[in-house]
Amino acid sequence: MSSLAIVHSRAQVGIQAISVTIEVHLTNGSAKLLIVGLPETAVKESQERVRSALLNAQFEFPLQRITINLAPADLPKEGGRFDLPIALGILAASRQIPADNLLDYEFVGELALNGDLRPVRGVLPMALKAREAQRELVVPFENATEAAMVSGVSILPVKHLLDICGHLQKSAIITPYCSKDTPNPATVKQIGDLSEVRGQHHAKRALEVAAAGGHNLLMMGPPGTGKTMLASRLPSILPPMTEKEALETATIASIARNGFDASSWAIRPFRAPHHTASGVALVGGGSHPRPGEVSLAHNGILFLDELPEFDKRVLEVLREPLESGHITISRAAHSAEFPANFQLIAAMNPCPCGYLGDSNNRCHCSPQQINRYRGRISGPMLDRIDLHIEVPNLPRSELRQDAIRETSEKVRARVIAAREIQIKRNGKPNNLLGNQEIEAVCRLTEADERLLDTAIEQLGLSARAWYRILKVARTIADLSGSEKIQTSHLTEAITYRRLERKS
Fold first, then answer.
1. CATH architecture of the region 187-432
2. Backbone φ and ψ of 142, nearest 5°
C-alpha cells in the first residue's frame, strides 16, 4: 500500500522566494525516512524535529518507508523553514489529515519538539509570491505582522502544529491575520531635526540639494564641525517612501540576520558601518549569500564616516553598486542579486591629524602626508560622488548669532516639491538619469557650455564628472522651480567639485 501527498512551500535565494514542492511518498517496507532534493544539514535534521513534534502532538508516526522529495531537485535547500510542510505532508500521506485542500496553501515554519512553531527569516518575500500564486500563506505567529505588510494575501498565523491541523480538518478555523499595529509613516517622528545644526549654511544647502536629487555627498572638515550631525539629519528631509520602496526595503530586512522590525516600516534606512568593516560586510556574501550594508541601505542612506580609514580595496567594491544600483554575489553552487540603490554620504578629515586649515595652526602634517591620506580615495571613487563640500570650523561668535534656523519640515517641503518635478518629467530622481536623458533635460546656453568646459579643464574632471555636474545643476534648477538651467545653477553645481585631484 502506498500513498502520496503534495505540499507547497518556498526556499530563499537572495531576496527571491523560489517555489518548492514537497512530495511525501509512503510505501511498505522497513521503517526509514529519506529526504532528497539537495537538502542541507538543517533540512536533513528536520526529520528528528518532525518525528518528535508529531508524537508529542498525539499523532502516529508511520512505520513505513517515507520518501520526501524537495523539488526542484537542483536547488539547494537550507534552514528549518520546511519542517511544517514536511510534517503536514507526512500526516496527509498517512491519511491523518485531509489532503484535498492542501494545494490551496503555502506553508513555512520551524517546528519545536513539542509541536510549537518558531519564526523564520524571509517571510515577506514569500507573502509577495503567495499573492501572485493566489494561495493562502501559513506562517508562525511571530512572522504574521511581517507577512501582513503585503496587501491582498490571506495570512494564517499558527502557534502550534495542532492549530493548522484543526484548520485543515475544519474543526477549528483560523481567522486570517489583520495587523492593527502597523505604524503610519506620516506620523513617525524622525530622530533629529536640521534646525539643531548651528551655522554651516553652505553644508545645509548641499544637504538639501543632495536630498532633492538623491545625490551622493562627501563632507570634509576638522573634527567637531558637525559632519556626522549633518548626515544624521538627512533622513528628516528626504521624501516619504512609496509603497513599492517600503516593500523592497522591508524584503531585504526580512532576509537579514536581525530580521524585519515592523516599527521601521516605510522609514528610510540609515546605515553607518565602522571603518573596520570588510568588503563582505559592505556588499554581502557568505556561502549562502546574505545582504551587506549597501543592500540594507537600499532606498536609504549609507553613511561612511572617516572615509580614508576604510581599506582601499573595500571602498573600491562600492563602485559597482554606486553605478548600477544592485550587487551580484556569485558562488560555485549559485548566485544571488541584491538591490543596492542607496545614497552615499561620506565624511573625512582634511589631513591625518584632522586640523588642516584650523585657525589655531594645530596641524603639523607635511604635504606628502596629506597627499597620501587623501590618495586613499581613488579618482574613480571620487568621480561617483556628486557633491564635495568643506565643513569648516566656525567661530563661536557666529554660532551664537545663528538663532533663526529652518526646520527639517520646511526644507523637506522644498525637497518633495523638487522631487515631484523630477518624477513628473523623468519618472525618477535626477541621480538616476542616463547620459542620453541628461543631454535631453540638462541643456545649456552656449555661454554656460563654455563656462562648464573651462571648469572641466581647470579642475581636471572626467566625462563622468561632467555629467554629474549637469545632474546637480538640474536639481538646483528644480529646487528653484526653473524650467531651464540658469548660470547661477551651473556655477553652484561647479562649486560642489572642490576636492578633485587637480585642484
1. 3-Layer(aba) Sandwich (3.40)
2. -65, -20
